[in-house]
Amino acid sequence: MSSPARGLIIAAMPIYEYAATAKGCDHCTGHFDVLQKSKEEPLTKCPRCGAEVARVISAPSFAMGNAHTLKESNLEKHGFTQYRRAGNGVYEKTAGKGPKFISGD
Ligand SMILES: [Zn+2]
Hints:
Elements: E1 8-11, E2 15-20, H1 26-29, E3 32-35, E4 53-55, H2 72-75, E5 81-87, E6 90-95, E7 101-103
């Protein structure tokens, strides 16, 4: 296991997993992931074929690390908030929405 980038954490939109409840297309027959804000209505139909889909897991997972794959300027557009370590257990926001400072270990 590799550890996340040192001094950098990403608070992302929750990733929800969906799967077709009956027969679907290649996209939805297996599970597929959707980035959604938690306030958004859950998907009921496959965006590609319109087959009925259901959310597979209720507990959202969060993308952590791998921040280097996204340009900082794109972070906010993708709904990410980026923090950099600013001091002793304190992180300063560098992109996206959210509190300017958070503390954590
Ligand atoms: Zn489909």
